[in-house]
Amino acid sequence: ETYQENAARKARAYANAARLPALADDSGLEVDALEGRPGVHSARYAGVGLTDQDAANRKKLLGALEGIPPQQRGARFRAFVALTHPYGPNVRFGEGTVEGRIAQDERGDLGFGYDPVFELPDGRRMAELSREEKNEFSHRARALAQLDWALDALHDALDNTVGQRTAMKETGSGNDESVDAGASDEPARPA
To answer: Within its chain, how far is the Cα of 182 from the centroid?
Structure first.
């Protein structure tokens, strides 16, 4: 089980259910002193079905790192974003990371998950950043940035398809079934 596999599985499921292109992600926290844990199990590190899952996860993490000096608490948030469509097996991926370390206590009340214990190189915690600041360089933002070209290509393909259908409708060329995509329960397939 990897972030990439999980993101692809989710994107394929969403795309097939909606019959539309879909984006999905999977992410987690990797701590060097814990050999990469909690990793893909970050969301359920302390168990499942807990009343305050995030707080329980942070408590378990800090307990596992008790006695580990700050210089050995290197960590990163890692995200994979997957983009796919329901008409083929291809999945495009973006990967992003943010490096930091795990602090010895919690600070900040913004964000979620491990943000209060994740310390950036400048000393701030992820939980002290505004949404705008976090979105500038978060692991998810970096993963999405790697998919810019695929999102642009998808946008262009959709624009071309809509343009072709509009032109066909305006000129009366083609048959009504291929012009009026809303007349059929079947999704239009990309060219």
So the answer is: 31
Residue in 147, 22, 24 with CA at minimum distance from that of residue 86: 22
Q: Which residues contact 52 (CB under 8 A, 6 or more apart)?
A: none
Instruction: State the catalytic residue, choosing from 26, 54, 148, 180.
Output: 26
If DSSP codes are grouped into helix, strand and coil, which group holds residue 25?
A: strand
Per-residue pLDDT tens digits for 114-163: 999 999 999 999 999 999 999 888 999 999 998 887 777 777 776 666 55
Coil, strand or helix at 83: strand
> Which residues, including other chains, have CB under 8 Å from residue 51's CB and lie 6 or more apart?
none
Rg (CA), the chain: 22
Does the annotation count 180 as an active-site position?
A: no
Cα–Cα dist 30/23, whole Å: 23
Tell me what percent of the residues of the chain surpass a pLDDT of 90: 62
